[in-house]
Amino acid sequence: MCGAENTTPLAGRPSDGLTPGLGLYSDPIINLDHGDPTIFKPYWMRSRDQLVVSGSELMSYFSRGGHPCWFMEPDFEKSVKRLHGLVGNAVSEGRYLVVGTGSSQLYLASLYALCSPDQPHPVSVVCAAPYYSSYAEATTFLKSSLFKWEGDANAFDKDGPYIELVTSPNNPDGTTRNPVVDRGGNLIHDLAYYWPHYTPITYCADHDIMLFTLSKCTGHAGTRIGWAIVKNEQVAGRMVKYLELSSIGVSKESQLRAARILGAVCNEIEAPPGPNLKFFDFAKLLLSERWGKLRQAVKRSGLFTVSEFPLAYCLFFREYTGSHPGFVWMTCKDKNLDCSGLLREQRILTRDGRRFGSDASCSRVSMMSKDEEFDVFLERLAKVKPPEKSNACNGLLQL
Ligand SMILES: Cc1ncc(COP(=O)(O)O)c(C=O)c1O
Predict the structure, then answer these.
(1) Is 117 exposed, middle or buried (0-12, 13-18, 19+ CB in 10 A)?
(2) Per-residue pLDDT tens for 336-387?
(3) How far apart are CA 41 and CA 371, in angstroms?
(4) Ligand 1, closest atom to CA 225?
């Protein structure tokens, strides 16, 4: 039978961080390049809640007449607003909510909404480096005549309209960010990580366009749900138009699943303390334990530095807390070294600093993998050695 050799149980199986053909399962490659948030799965395994949808439900394209975001499920909107109200991280009452297929789709919808088809030149899009690598890729891939990726906001000196992306806490380095250009351009605030397990909630954000995603909030990246909180009605309307043109709305099953998940987190926040940790406590503990172990490993290795974060008073936890970002931005002390290359020698895949507008001495490593992968990562980090001078020389001669 044609292709029968590809029908083994392992063939074509998504990698799980394991790459078939390279020491299959005995010495697997650990893929910490992407930010797949499987870290929170143990928490959700506690939940018995199930969403059952019958064949006759959710069949229409439409969710509600008369609402600017006509494909948004009312229960989804209610849960999102409830969660922001309880966490206190963003103003959502009296604002326009737009649901998207992940915040990735809403990023493009925001760009579309902030540009006019009548403008003579594409609007410049900038973000201070190191920036989330997908921005550059998503902004350029369709070669739009509406907007143009111009890279590092710190180096941006062009006149004319611009859009600045402000990711806070930042991916890849976890820092708290403010706009840097400050010449009256439009801002998109990506607050994917502005949740109390990653960073102290120090103020209730109320920016013109704020993007959030279920992927990083609760770890349900596969549900593909994000939301934008928008101040201006016309901008929200244009974002909805983009979603209508690109996918005629957003999966209702996903919206209802998101509503249930966010609703469960809200119910817990409102409930008195019980025997189990609530979601944000659980997630913060997990991440802070990982960061503690990582810092020890980095110290022992002596080859890298990682960011330090100040303590700040968290309005949600009502105590001083640290930051525990979803990624670690590892930098080689020796700026001539290739950080991803060193880690790759130990079969750890990470994302090269150059993809973030930085250099090869830095690399982004996910802190959100499964426990097993994180433990192997630490073991292998201990084995990373700087290249021998003679080897480095050999490498050059082979080029
Ligand atoms: C800063 C930031 N924004 C947006 C996204 C995309 O999220 P989504 O899964 O909702 O498309 C990510 C994913 O890694 C991210 O790190």
Answers:
(1) exposed
(2) 999 999 999 999 999 999 999 999 999 999 999 999 999 999 999 999 988 8
(3) 10
(4) 10
* 352 CA → ligand 1 middle, Å: 18
* Residue given tokens 């334990």 in the structure block: 289
List Cα–Cα distances, 277 to 139, 195, 229, 268, 269, in angstroms.
40, 16, 29, 9, 10
Looking from the CA of residue 214, the nearest atom of ligand 1 is 10
Q: What is the pLDDT of residue 389?
A: 56
Is 321 strand, coil or helix? strand
Interacting residues of 390 by C-beta distance below 8 A, sequence separation 6+: none
**Coil/strand/helix, residue 277:** coil
Over the stretch 239-289, which tens digit does the pLDDT of each residue have? 999 999 999 999 999 999 999 999 999 999 999 999 999 999 999 999 999
CA gap 72, 237 in Å, rounded: 13
Enter the CATH code of domain 4-43+279-398: 3.90.1150.10
Determine whether the shortest distance from the Cβ of 185 to ligand 1 is under 6 A. Answer: no
Tell me the best of 34, 80, 134, 135 to mutate to test the pocket of ligand 1, counting ligand atoms within 8 Å of each CB and taking the most. Answer: 134
The CA 225 to ligand 1 mean position distance, Å, reads: 10
**Cβ atoms of residues 314 and 285 within 8 Å:** no
> Where do the domains of the chain lie?
4-43+279-398, 74-269
74-269 topology per CATH: Aspartate Aminotransferase; domain 2 (3.40.640)
